[in-house]
Amino acid sequence: MNRAFLRLVAEDIQQRYGKDISDIAVVFNNKRPITYLKKHLVDVYQQAIWSPQFFTIQEFFSLSTTKVQASPISQFFYLYELHNELLAKEGVEPETLEEFYPIAEIILSDFSQLDYDLVDIAQIFMELSDTTEIELAFQHFTPEQQAFIRQFWQSFSVQGHTGVQKRFLRLWRRLPTLYKAFKERLQTEGQTNFPTIYRYLAEGKAENKTFVDQFQQVLFVGFNALNRAEAKLFREWQEQGKALFYFDADSHYLDDKLQEAGLFIRRNIFQTGLLNALGDVPNVIGNRADDVHVYQSLGKISETKLLYDLLSENQDQSKSSAILLADESMLVPLLQSLPYTDVNITTGYPLIQSPIYGLLDLWMNVQVLISQQHKEKIPYQLLETYLTNPMSKVSKKQKQQIQTESADKQLFEVEVKEIDISQSVLPHFFRKLQSAEQTIPTLSAMIDSLLLSLADNDRIRQIESNLLMETKKVLNQLQLGFSNLGKLSIGFQIGLIRKALGPISSAIEGNPLKGLQIMGLLESRCLNFDQVYILGANEGILPKTSNSPTFLPNNLRKAYGLPVLENQDALSAYLFYRHFQYSSDIHLFYNAVVSESSSGEESRFIKQLEFETKFNFVKHTQQQPLTFPTQPQELVIEKTGEVWNKLYGSYIKHGKRISASAFTSYLQSPLQFFLKYVADIKEPPSISQEFEMNKLGTVIHESMEELLAPLKAVDDFVATESLKAKLEIADQVVLKQIGNEYLTSFNTVNELNSLQRIMHKIATEYVKMYLQYDIDQYQAIRIVELENSDDYILDFPIEINGSIETVTLYGIIDRVDEVLTKDGQTKLRIVDYKTGADSVTFRNLDVVFAANTENKALVQTLFYAYVYEQVTGLRNLEPHLYVARRMREDGTVFKNNNGSFVLSDQTLAEQKEVFVAFLKSTLEELFDQQVPFKHNPDAAVYPSDPFTLFYKYSVKESAVED
């Protein structure tokens, strides 16, 4: 492997200057290489010496002024005020803060670029109308540059400007004046910014023009793409003997004029005339024939998983290693996939991907919502989001209490004043702001509370504290800006706060000389590592296919020599290629899935190197794992050990009851019976956004009981005409029962939420339908029993392991009545109400009295009838099913599909005996240790079934045999 670039620099410094280096300045593009060069100097000198002075380029140039740096937020507010002043002079309505924020970002970026490249502001924004003006104004430009300018102005013909063009031209004319006013405002405030420092230095206007003289010599290390200001100053300082330049390059791309990776260094050396202190550059890339591993993954997350496997198996701790993110959005999934924690991360961890932002954004959503309401309510999801955010630290007890109460009441919306989160970090989180002026102070107070919370729990993590402090700085700057703008609404402030918080990020600092280093490609300048892993090496990402937003069209940028997309490509190529000069172990990962955000192709830089060099590119393709098990991994619960002890002990020894629902659950799916009734797995409380049929059924049952209860007190028949009075009060009774179901008292339908109103409408119609059916079909009725869940319990003998044991059955009897038909006959009936898709029809009883029963309602109703008859001694109880959807068409008596077989009279008596035998054999199977609990694959599985995951691999017996 070639020696590290900074090692070569350290050796050259020793050779040139010996020990006398304390008055030398060493300047880098960023801070990261400083630590590494210090380490190499220690290794080279092998003794204590006075260190040179280290700077980033911006720190170095800032020595030329005493003015304070204006923060980005301050610059925005200056620009905003000045721009609106210009609009007022033009008689145009002022822009709002939110409208102007994205425009301001582009304007400031363009102003910066023009300063860095020393472009004449008045000239570039000159308004031209014809070719003659261009030739006169730009005589010193080349014909090619003049052609670019003509192309730009030809797109704005004198006639027929579109609305967008007119708006652009108005802004275009305004920008020179705005630029001048902006610079004057910075001067007035005693402030400056880096672009101004660069321009003033290059144009000889700096406060301290000779600040370079305080150093014996200035060493500029690892620079690549220079703007015009840097190029001019570097050349002047070189001519004065004050500057020395160390370029990190390889002749493979430097000597080949078609190689974009060498574009800027060729320009620095051959056009600007800067001399490379290291002399001629070697051709390392062209002479290497090492293996380079390229991994094709099936998605971004898969890239990090592949890397995890690689690091787990092959990482050599004795070698320096770095993960370089061509796609920096992969930082969070990468952090979740690292096999160890000894890492140093300088790629900024973005605030918007942290739980902190989740909490702040939630608060802003809540305040915008309740500030627009007369009665402060929020959707339950917002409360749930607060409860589950790790930064809120709601106590477990209070969290469970809120969730359970909300689920019981099915609170889709929650009144803010009723939210009790006193046992959390931010107990006043949902309190409504009393005035718009409290917006930022309240957010700042929240940040203070979060910082205290982290300290109290002894787990301050640098990333969290850094993000919180950076956020507070931005908020303080916004508050200063807002103070000069009069009264602003809450929503208006929050819109701008969101934009201002977006760019915040924090480095995760570790030891830069030890462990795994994680950084973006740009941050890897000057640095070399033995092992390099590059994530996101996709075309479209490396290099990027888009430029930053600008008001300077591409033609003008080319005319004035400003950076264009090709420059960005050249920089990306250089940052990528240079690692092939030094690293001995290179691994490249790219996403092969084609999507809106992915081309699905490896970077063209990989293909170029593969074509041009002797490197051996070893391709690894991730395949979707395909398994062909000889037997599906079905969940089967054997009735042994603890399972059998629980089943036998609960139902036989301790008399746990088996209901009709439990019995039909076993018929549908023995595995579901085990999960619900043996393992006692319960569903967690939840707020459903869908209509819940079980709650509708409860409301209907309770409403029918309340309406018919007065009739139960009457021993004799009552004319069904009397039920008409019940129709009049049905809606109020249903309203009351909905209130009972949701643990709330409702006085009017208007107090119900949207889903409750739907429930009220459906339940009322069903109840009226049931009542009207009785009025239409019968002369009189006598209520014998209503909704009795206490008295109907039956000991039922079955055989278990050769012995007779007793299992306890019980039924909740919805209704038992005696009716007088229109032709004068009386019938004793057991009635079950159904709100779902149940039916009174069936194909034949062989598929009813069977596993995965075809008609669950019939089995349940016969179950109720059997228990009732055995407990009371009554006989000839006829089962009836009230299914609101089909009552008028199908009636309420069970029958086969064509109506030729009806369960009544003698037929019913015979089938009751068949049912009892079926009941006995099924229960004996339930307690047969040789028959395990397993899911019936033919059973219908509903989307709302919470146990769906357990059925996933269930298969038919024949499939297993095959």
Automatic annotation (TrEMBL):
Residues 657-937 form the PD-(D/E)XK endonuclease-like domain. Gene3D superfamilies: 3.90.320.10. SUPFAM superfamilies: P-loop containing nucleoside triphosphate hydrolases, Restriction endonuclease-like. This is PD-(D/E)XK nuclease family protein. The lineage of its organism: Bacteria, Pseudomonadati, Bacteroidota, Sphingobacteriia, Sphingobacteriales.
